[in-house]
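re: that chain from earlier
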Amino acid sequence: MITQVILIADSDPRKKVIGGIGIYTYHLAKYLTEKGVRVVFIGKKQSGKNINMLKNLTFMEATSKIGQSNKAFLQGLYKVARSFDIPEDAVIHAQRPDWLVPFAKYPNRKIVTLHGSHSKNVYLKKGYLIGKLYSMLEKKGLGAADHIVSVSKENKRYYEKLYQCSPSITAKLQVIPVGVTLPKIKKADKARYGLKKADKAVVFIGRFEKEKNLKLLINAAHQAQLPLLLVGEGAEKEMLQNYAKQIKSKTIFHKAVLNEQIPQILSCASVFALSSLYEGLPIVVIEALASGIPVVSTNVGDVGEVVINGKTGYVVDAKSMPQKLQYTAKHSNRFRKNCLAMAKNYSWNIVGKRIMEIYKQ
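^ sequence. v structure.
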């Protein structure tokens, strides 16, 4: 029987929860505590009041200041690992391979979840040298893990190819998809987000980063003559705002929101859109389907597992995106029943049970 789990992620499940890993670990912590498992969450110091009160949860700050870098977080994890007396029967579950490295010498069962192609992302954003250093940490973390969980089949294939010369790593890979808490469908309040009542809106919720390829989405929605609501923050925000203004598109930018507000935003959408260059299986795609909203997406990760052409939306290339956005937004209600049925396969009752089974192995 599992009595204690140590979760490691760069967030704080008690506070404002944004971002894929933050949302995932909040719901995982919630699921575990509701099952009577004690959770110790080692995370980053965050601003704001505690708004999510979970029983059986203890939070440990690995950083001393708000907004510190991933490097500072990793250094903080080393400090925690040196001073933390972890019971031998506790499971250690890190949400990135490098975050497991400070705990590599502990005899406990160790799990790492791959939420995406982390090394690829570091190379893209930080360049070759930092990418190479990260790859060394990643390999060490994966080597220390007893089980490696990928949230998508595509990402599992990526790591199998990347570590094809390290069978001790690839043999530990398995897929457990992201989970969602199925929401109650909200009544749309379009005016709150700058939309008109009659608008057939395209919505994106996520980070404004290079890999999200949002310039493509702005173009596609503009060509489809549909209003676009972009919700989030990121390094490319100013550039995207300038571009949207330059082409005179009807693009509305809204700051990042609490996870609890996502169903309210999705209720304003006729279609949810994803234009990423690469992904695993984003939680927000499942959340859109769980709200009865069809999805139009580029062909990335495992999106094609849930976005079924003509049933729950369309998987598209750049050329066909405007036409599919226009058609799907116009006929959104036709997709609703299939979207809701698909999302039920990804409820936390199913996903959480599978993760618990991994803890016991």
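The chain has a mean pLDDT of 93.
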